[in-house]
Every structure is written in structure tokens, then in C-alpha cells.
Design goal:
alpha+beta, five-stranded mixed β-sheet, single chain
Length: 512
């Protein structure tokens, strides 16, 4: 019996001898035989218009391949057959896993457009039975309030489970299968906005991931300088907040006064899903520079009262939408408290990635919040003509872009605390973090994460990130989010009501 996924390789081998590399099927460009299936070029202008894209059902029933389609109908049918053999309820999970692994090997050697055809088959050919779902929905609606309601609900739930779910589950059976599915989703995520055909497939796999990667199945591990080199290399690769520049930089982040923890899944033991870097200090940190200073003397742990979370990095793009950051922070806090009973403060030193872009869009309205005197002083600081003091409050896009450029050019990190420009930028940042909402959620992505976990906006820090990235994103500002363990639920409730939890220092900048 031909093994799953091997038919395509055998077919290609017959058409193009010598194109084998071991046992893995090697997807090819269309063969000369397949090229003969391409329809002739149209001669009229009307016929020259590109035909609408065919769905997989139309392609499976066709004989000829159209331009722009990767697999011929014949190869597409064979690939569908391989997938159906994986999903076959009559075979054991072990055998199904072996078949899925063969398909995965074909996929990993395939060209991007051929991989896209596999996604379309998964999405369109393994959907729930529409007639069955409609019948179950009608039965459920009719049974509402009767003794049959519970049974009708159970039938509806079963009807909504697609054959696609069993198929995806069987890809997770073979040793690298779960990691394969995570990488698979990472590949199609950027295409979801332009190819709506993939939405159902993505939603189903995201739902499965939410179950498979539940925190109950994850392991919290401390990463240290003694961890395997391959794992340390992944820390360097995945660090998304402050780039790790060298092994010396990494060693500093794993020193005695630091801690690094990650969540791991037992089926992906060498791949951190998310990790957090922590500095143990004696006060709230106001700058990232000393934390990243490789020459700094380690802090005295006996005096450490504060844990600063200065970097949290998600590592797997394919797990977007699966949230375990909240659980990670809770587990780390519990672990740190057990090791260091003196710790009393748990806070972050976080970037403000959306500040500058937001300010560019809202500069005129922020300027309008100033008093007449503040506008005059700020215009003078920026070396603008006096008429700018009032006109900037109604500036258009061109004038706002010019004004923002002047602000950025003048925003010296060494500005004194009472500088009108420093006061203006700090006030804008406070209103951005403490009041800017979109559909009831904080606009800034980092704020959305920490505030959603129950933290509050505690303090803004001028010149906290002098790096090029820090200047470009937030004019060098960083923020502390405070995790007050006794008020986390209260802060979540406040946020759900549309009010961002902030300290009194931040609140002083907010409009009444």
C-alpha cells in the first residue's frame, strides 16, 4: 500500500527522474505532462480577463489547471486523499499520526503556493456538514424550555465539531506534530486579512491551541547561565524588547541578581513559549541603562525589596491569541516570594511602543489642552513664530507633522524637569496611557497586556530608554506598571468599566 504523502513524490519522480532526496517527497514545478493541462491563451479582450479564483471543490472536479493554481486537479485530489486517510476514524491514532507525519514532510519541502493549497483543503474540505448543523440548530431552538433542551444542545455541539478538528488533532500525534502546527499557523496568519477562506481554519486551530496550551499543561522553568547552549541561543533569538547584543549581555541578564523564567509545553520541551526577565533591586527602576550595564556590580540580594519585570517576550507567532502572560507573571511572583520573602514591590519597566505614532495623530488636540501661557512658552522653546502658540491647536496633518519633527528634534534627554517641552511630552504620555481607549481597551499594546492583568500605570520615566528604538517609539520615555497583589481584581473591574487604573502622579495630567 502506498504510504500517505508519497504518491506526489512518486508521480514527480516518474516525470522527472533523479529529483529525489531521501524518503521525503520533493514538490516540483509543473511537469511537462502537467503543463499540457494548462488551458490555451485567450484571444479576445473579454477572454483575457482573469477568471475568478476557483475554490478547492471546483478545482477537485476539474481536469485542467488554471494559471495561478499551484497543484493540478489530479495532484490536489491525491493530497486530499492523503488528508482523508489521516482523518479516517477507522485507523488508530498511532497510524494516523504516522500518516500525518508523511504529509508534514511533503509540506515542509513544498513551495509556498503549494503549501497554500494544503491550507485551502484543510479549510474548505473538512468543514462541518452545513445541513447537519442547520438541522441541529432548528432542533435546539424548538426544544428550548422543554425536557429535550439538554439533549438538543448536546446534538448541536456535536454537529458543530468539524472533521477538521480530528484531522488537526492527529497532526499533533507524531513527536514534532504540535510544533509543526504552531509553525503552520504562523505562516498563514499574515494572509488572513486578504484571504478570508482561511478564517475558519485559523479559528479552529486557535481554539485547539487554547486547550492544548492551557496553563495547567505548561511547566515554569528557570533559565540560567547553566542552561543548555541551544536554549540560551533561543533567548537571544526571541528577545523582543531589548535586543541581546552578545553572550556577555546575556550573561549579565542571568547574573545572581537576575532571574529569567519561561513557560514550556511537554511536547515542545526545547522551545520556550514566553519568557520574562527580572531584576531584583531595592527601588522602582527609572532607566533601562543600569539594568543592561554589563559592567555593573550585582545588587545585594539581602537588600532587594523590588522585582522589576523589564522584558516579556512571546516566542511563537503561531500562538497569537493564546494568552498565558498573565499566568506567567502570577507564577513568577509566587516563585520569587518563596525564594525572597523580603520582596514587597512587583512592577515593570516597560516601553511605550505606540506613543510617538499616537502623538503624531493627536498633536493638535494635545496642544489645545495647554493654557495660553503654556502654549507661548512651548512655542518659544521650540523656536517657533509667536502665531504658532495658538494656531497649532487647529493644525492640519502637514502642520502637525512639522511640529512633531520640531518636538522630536528638541526633545533632548537631558532636558530639566521643568522644561516646557519635557512637561508637554510627559503630559501627552500620561494621557496616552491613562485615558486613550479603543473599543474599551487601552490603545498601547504593552499597556493593554499589563492593565488587562490587573496592573496600574504607576510612573513615567524621562530618558529611560536612550536607544534608537526607544527614541523612535516613545522619545525615550518608559513606564512602570505596578502589580499591587491586593488590588489586581479591583483594577481589572475598573478597566472593564472603561477607566484605566493610574497612580495619583499620572492622574494629575489627565483632563477632568
Amino acid at each position: 500500500m502506498t504510504s500517505p504523502g508519497s504518491w506526489i513524490a512518486n508521480k514527480v519522480a516518474r516525470v522527472r527522474p533523479g529529483k529525489k532526496t531521501g524518503a521525503v517527497a520533493q514538490p516540483e514545478q509543473p511537469s511537462s505532462a502537467a503543463a499540457a493541462e494548462v488551458q490555451p491563451q485567450p484571444t479576445s479582450k473579454a477572454a483575457a480577463r482573469p477568471a475568478p479564483a476557483r475554490n478547492t471543490q471546483e478545482r477537485l472536479q476539474a481536469t485542467l489547471r488554471r494559471d495561478g493554481e499551484a497543484l493540478t486537479p489530479r495532484l490536489l485530489r491525491r493530497l486530499l486523499n492523503d488528508l482523508q486517510e489521516v482523518a479516517d476514524a477507522g485507523v488508530s491514532d498511532i497510524e494516523a499520526g504516522r500518516r500525518a507525519e508523511a504529509v508534514a514532510q511533503w509540506y515542509q519541502a513544498a513551495k509556498p503556493e503549494q503549501q497554500h493549497d494544503l491550507w485551502l483543503l484543510l479549510s474548505e474540505q473538512f468543514a462541518p456538514d452545513a445541513a447537519h448543523v442547520l438541522s441541529a440548530q432548528q432542533r435546539y431552538s424548538q426544544a428550548a424550555g422543554t425536557d429535550e433542551a439538554h439533549q438538543a444542545e448536546a446534538c448541536l455541539r456535536r454537529a458543530l465539531v468539524s472533521p477538521r478538528a480530528r484531522l488537526l488533532q492527529r497532526f499533533a500525534v507524531f513527536p514534532q506534530g504540535l510544533h509543526f502546527l504552531v509553525q503552520l499557523r504562523a505562516q498563514w496568519l499574515p494572509l488572513l486579512k486578504t484571504d478570508k477562506r482561511l478564517l475558519a481554519l485559523d479559528a479552529e486551530l486557535e481554539q485547539l491551541f487554547s486547550t492544548w496550551f492551557d496553563v495547567a499543561f505548561l511547566e515554569l522553568r528557570r533559565l540560567s547561565w547553566d542552561s543548555p547552549a541551544s536554549l540560551l541561543e533561543k533567548l537571544i533569538q526571541y528577545e523582543a524588547v531589548h535586543d541581546i547584543r552578545s553572550w556577555a549581555d546575556l550573561k549579565n541578564r542571568l547574573d545572581s541578581d537576575r532571574r529569567c523564567y519561561g513557560f514550556f509545553h511537554p511536547r515542545m520541551p526545547d522551545e520556550p513559549l514566553i519568557f520574562v526577565e527580572v531584576a531584583l533591586v531595592d527601588a522602582l527602576s527609572d532607566s533601562i541603562t543600569p539594568l543592561l550595564d554589563e559592567q555593573a556590580v550585582p545588587a545585594d540580594l539581602a537588600k532587594a525589596t523590588t522585582a522589576i519585570f523589564y522584558s516579556i517576550s512571546n516566542t511563537q507567532t503561531g500562538l497569537r491569541g493564546v494568552s498565558f502572560g498573565d499566568s506567567l507573571i502570577k507564577h513568577v511572583v509566587q516563585t520569587l516570594m518563596a525564594e525572597f520573602p523580603r520582596l514587597r514591590v512587583f512592577a515593570t519597566l516597560s516601553p511605550i511602543p505606540g506613543l510617538r505614532a499616537w502623538l503624531g495623530k493627536h498633536l493638535a488636540e494635545q496642544w489645545a489642552l495647554l493654557t495660553e501661557r503654556e502654549r507661548v512658552e512651548l512655542a518659544r522653546t521650540l523656536q517657533l513664530e509667536p502665531e504658532w502658540a495658538r494656531a497649532a491647536a487647529t493644525a492640519g496633518a502637514t502642520e502637525s507633522a512639522f511640529l512633531l519633527a520640531r518636538i522630536q528634534a528638541a526633545a533632548d534627554l537631558a532636558l530639566p524637569a521643568k522644561s516646557p517641552l519635557r512637561q508637554f511630552i510627559t503630559g501627552c504620555a500620561a494621557r496616552y496611557l491613562g485615558a486613550a481607549l479603543h473599543e474599551g481597551r487601552p490603545v498601547d499594546p504593552v499597556a493593554r497586556f499589563h492593565l488587562g492583568n490587573g496592573a496600574r500605570v504607576e510612573r513615567l520615566n524621562w530618558a529611560a530608554d536612550p536607544s534608537h528604538k526607544g527614541i523612535k517609539q516613545s522619545l525615550g520615555l518608559m513606564v512602570n506598571y505596578l502589580y499591587d497583589l491586593k488590588r489586581l481584581d479591583r483594577h481589572r473591574k475598573q478597566l472593564a468599566q472603561g477607566r484605566i487604573p493610574v497612580s495619583s502622579d499620572i492622574e494629575a495630567y489627565l483632563p477632568d
